[in-house]
Amino acid sequence: MAFADNNTASNGAVAVSRSFPKVNTAKANLFAEATSTTVNGDSNWGGIESLNVPQTQSTAEKEAEAAAQAKAEAEARAQAQEEAAAAASRSHAREDTAATADTAANTGASAGTAAAAAPVAPQSGNGAALAAFAQGYVGTPYVMGGNTPSPGWDCSGFVQWVFSQFGISLPRTSGEQAMVGTAVPSLAQAQPGDIIANGAHAAIYIGNGMVVNALNPSDGTQITAVAATSTLQGGYSIRRVL
């Protein structure tokens, strides 16, 4: 520190000089905080240190994966369609083959049925042969006014046709057939090949109280008992021609 002398003071001017040492002041950062953490090596963190965190995909990766999956599905659908078409083609081929075989079998069966349904009448025969021949047509359709196996016949048409195969000509109606040949007194005396007829029905006796006859459109040509044939219940005539 310096002070003015007397001479200087007497002259009316004062000069003062002060000097202070430089002091460096450290500023404290009150907002800074020091943290120290110590980890115990034996600490148990509940398994969090071993968690398997899945890796996430980017948008580009997800789009690429979706496109690949769609392509695979499309290829699988196309392959399935090709296999289905091939299987259908093979199935159709098998069906065509089976249909051809069925047609051939049916043709053979039809021919066999026709042959079975058309037994050959003996060149010369008796009533028993005629009765046996007539039974070969069981199942033939009933057709009103018909007198041939195809398309069918009614009761008197059946009797007339069977006898014609043995060279015997009979009248067309059942009432007329009830008067041909020789009368047989009773059913107990009837023999196979006799005609049993009245004005409503005609049949061929085959023995044991049974007849073969064309009944109606529902039943066709069948074997029935005389006693159970409704159209013969009002009375009938037994006629022997052979």
TrEMBL record:
Keyword terms of this UniProt record: Hydrolase, Protease, Thiol protease
Biological process according to GO: proteolysis
One Pfam family matching this protein: NLPC_P60
InterPro entries membership: NLP_P60_dom, Papain-like_cys_pep_sf, Peptidase_C40
SUPFAM superfamilies documented for this protein: Cysteine proteinases
Coiled-coil positions: none
A GO molecular-function descriptor: cysteine-type peptidase activity
Lineage top rank: taxon: Bacteria
Gene3D superfamilies: endopeptidase domain like (from Nostoc punctiforme)
The keyword Protease appears for this protein: yes
Annotated segments matching region Disordered: 55-104
UniProt domain NlpC/P60: residue ranges: 124-242
UniProt biased composition (Low complexity): 66-88
Protein family (similarity comment): Belongs to the peptidase C40 family.
Protein name in the entry: NlpC/P60 domain protein
Species name: Bifidobacterium magnum
